[in-house]
Description:
Blueprint: E1 14-16, E2 19-23, H1 29-38, H2 40-44, H3 64-76, E3 80-86, E4 89-100, E5 106-113, H4 122-136, E6 142-147, H5 152-161, E7 164-175, E8 178-188, H6 196-205
Parallel strand pairs: 5-6
Antiparallel strand pairs: 1-2, 2-3, 3-4, 4-5, 6-8, 7-8
Amino acid sequence: xxxxxxxxxxxxxxxxxxxxxxxxxxxxxxxxxxxxxxxxxxxxxxxxxxxxxxxxxxxxxxxxxxxxxxxxxxxxxxxxxxxxxxxxxxxxxxxxxxxxxxxxxxxxxxxxxxxxxxxxxxxxxxxxxxxxxxxxxxxxxxxxxxxxxxxxxxxxxxxxxxxxxxxxxxxxxxxxxxxxxxxxxxxxxxxxxxxxxxxxxxxxxx
Length: 206
């Protein structure tokens, strides 16, 4: 896969109703650390791990160096690290990774939100905002989300967004101490000519 070939500018704050998505900042370090600590049980079974067993427990270290590292993806044109906010409070993260240019023009999305706001419809809106940004501002052609088959909440997100199921990837990512299967879902720009946020709102209102 060829990289995007240019740096990625700050998209500003993406907003739909009470949901906001913006680039992660150093000032988000402590709120995110606290969320990771408070949601340890909620998130652990979905967290990526290193096959060697080495790794850091999320929330156990100062996150400022991690945030600096994430923001360097912008200059490299390889990723876009967001925080998700609800009623102006940070409630989770959304990461755009594997950004590719060339003949592929694609990216992957991963996300998590705090248990205390789960079920409020925040994640589908946040993902839709970011996909519209990737298709519009960055001009990408395709976005993919890979989800463990046991993750019912995440599967509901892609269902609400109308993402196309593309099949199972066996032993795809090392999660919670073992190689785990993932279900792959995708969307191309031509499938949502009017924007994904608009389509989501239409289906939600029905």
